[in-house]
Every structure is written in C-alpha cells, then in structure tokens.
Design brief:
This protein is of the alpha+beta class. The chain is built from 5 helices and 10 strands; from the N terminus they run E-H-H-E-E-E-E-H-E-E-E-H-E-E-H.
C-alpha cells in the first residue's frame, strides 16, 4: 500500500490483565500485596515496556517511572516510529537512560501519539479471601508500526486469569491519489494476533464494531490448578471439600470480573 506523506493512522491497544489469588488471612493478604509490589515494581515494568518497544520496532525517546506508597507502580514510555538524531530530540527526554540518583519525588512522562504505559493495582478486602492484581496497559502508535505485534509477549509477561483487550484504529491517511484510508491492515478479530496455544487456555468472546474499526475481546482462563492460586499454601493440605469450595469461589470471582458486574454478591 503506497501512501502519500506520513501514515497518520493511530493504532491504540488497551487491555486489562487480572491475576486472582486465594489469600484468606490478613497476614496472607498483606504478604501477597508485598509479593506483587516486589515482583512487578517499576523497574521490572520498565524492562517489559522496553522489550515491547523493541518488538514493535519503535525507538524510545523518554521513560518515566514511579513506585507508589502503599502499593502499585506506573511506567510511561514516549516512543517514535523511526530513529531521531540527537539535535531533533527534546533536551528533557532521557532516551531511556534512568538514573537511581534522580532527586525527584515523582516523575511524569511526555505523552504523544506514540506511547506505552502501564499501571498496576493490587487489591484485597479484609472480609474477602480472594485478592486481585490488575495491570492496565496502553500501547498507542502511529505510522507503520503496530501494537498488535506485542500482544503475545505482554500476555506471557503476567499471570493472566482474565484479559480484556480493546483495539481501535483512529483517523485516516491517504494513498497517492488522495483517497482516504481509515485502516491499513486486515483484521477480523484481536484473536487473530494471539498465539493459538495461548488461546486454547481461555474461553474468548469478541464484540467488534467493524464500521468504526473498533475491536474488543474478553478472555477467561478455562482450567483452575489450585496450587497456582493458593498463596503460601499447598492444595494437598486441604480437604477435598475445602478445595472444591475455594475453586468455586475463585471461579465466581473471575466470572464477575469477566462480566463487569456483581453476580454472586451477597445482599446487604
């Protein structure tokens, strides 16, 4: 496809990843949150987003990151489709070179048409035995590069029980004759860009609006291996009745998150 001038299409990929854990006692809940904060701190998230940038073939202009108190972290990466000479890059951009001695309480990113961001949200409630960890990721690109190429890597980078993905192509570009093009690639479903072996592990549902180049996919894990969901516990230590009860509660939690509504919530 030959275009006139720069490809002005903006391709935006946004998705939430949820990790579910059974942590019954307050101590277990506290230790789970501490584990998540250590496992997915801003340094680790920066490594993930840097790899995403490499996969989609973009160049880093600026990285900012922050760990929050009491929990959670954020990383923002400003990217460009092509390499830029040093005199073209704004002096405030660090080009991915982060220093541990930065004397700042908070760091904020430049956000442009092309950027990658991640925010984490560990969550628990003292009266509930199930804790959740949510990751929000946004990859927005313009030009020839596509955020869809990083989907498999991002899914594999987290323990994903529920995945909710939105992809939209916005704006238009023109061909050599001036005809407007509102999309520059074939796509019927986001699932087309996810590894087939990964898809086998999930039940997936599509809700697409083809007229506006908007695509939506929701995925929920099929099988629950209890040992992957117990924090500091072994499933063999529990009675069969207790194991079935925990698996039932885990599945109910996942179904509510997957559907975005309270289904099994007790009244009052």
């Amino acid at each position: 496809m030959k275009l006139y001038g720069f490809n002005n299409l903006t391709k935006s990929l946004s998705f939430n990843i949820y990790d579910i854990c059974y942590a019954k006692t307050l101590r277990e809940q506290k230790e789970y949150i501490e584990y998540i904060d250590e496992q997915y701190n801003s340094e680790r998230l920066t490594q993930i987003l840097t790899r995403v940038t490499e996969i989609i073939g973009a160049n880093i202009l600026n990285i900012s990151k922050q760990d929050y108190d009491p929990q959670g972290a954020s990383v923002n990466v400003l990217i460009a489709e092509g390499a830029m000479s040093s005199d073209e890059i704004d002096p405030s951009c660090n080009q991915g070179k982060l220093y541990n001695n930065l004397e700042r309480e908070t760091i904020h990113a430049h956000l442009d048409k092309s950027h990658v961001t991640v925010h984490t949200y560990p969550e628990h409630h003292p009266e509930k035995a199930i804790s959740t960890f949510r990751v929000d990721i946004d990859v927005s690109t313009c030009g020839q590069i596509s955020p869809l190429n990083a989907l498999d890597y991002l899914i594999d980078s987290f323990d994903s029980d529920i995945i909710i993905i939105d992809y939209r192509v916005r704006g238009f570009t023109r061909d050599l004759k001036g005809k407007k093009l509102f999309i520059d690639h074939e796509i019927k479903s986001i699932q087309d860009y996810i590894d087939k072996e990964t898809l086998k592990k999930y039940d997936a549902v599509d809700m697409n609006v083809f007229q506006s180049n908007t695509f939506h996919t929701k995925m929920i894990i099929k099988e629950i291996d209890l040992n992957n969901y117990l924090f500091n516990r072994d499933a063999e230590e529990l009675s069969m009745k207790k194991r079935l009860e925990i698996k039932d509660n885990l599945r109910k939690e996942m179904i509510e998150i997957f559907n975005g509504m309270n289904i099994y919530q007790e009244e009052g």
